[in-house]
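Worked problem 6 (solution included).
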Amino acid sequence: ATDMNQQPIRLMKMVDAAVGLLDKPDELVPVLRQLGARHNAYGTQDAHYDLVGQALLATLGKALGDAFDDATKAAWTRVYGVLATNMIAGAHAALPAAAA
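Solution. The predicted structure is:
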C-alpha cells in the first residue's frame, strides 16, 4: 500500500533528483522509466501525468510569485515534460504485449 500523504514529498524529491541528473540522461532515463513502470502497477494513467504537471506548475507559480516568469515557467514545463515522457514510456513498456 502507498501512503498518499507522502506523495507530494516523494514527487518533490523525485523532481529534485531529476533536475540534478538532467545533464546525465544515461543515468536519468532508466530511473524515470523504472519509476513509470512502478506507477503503472499503481494504476497511474497517462492523463494523470498532465494533472500532476499542471499542479506542479501552479504550485511553483504560487510559491515563486513574480519570479515565476515566462522563461522560468517554460523551463519547468520542459523539465516536467522530460520526466513525464520517460515515465509514460516506462509504463507502456511494462504493459503485457496484448495490452500495449
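Discussion: The chain has a mean pLDDT of 88.
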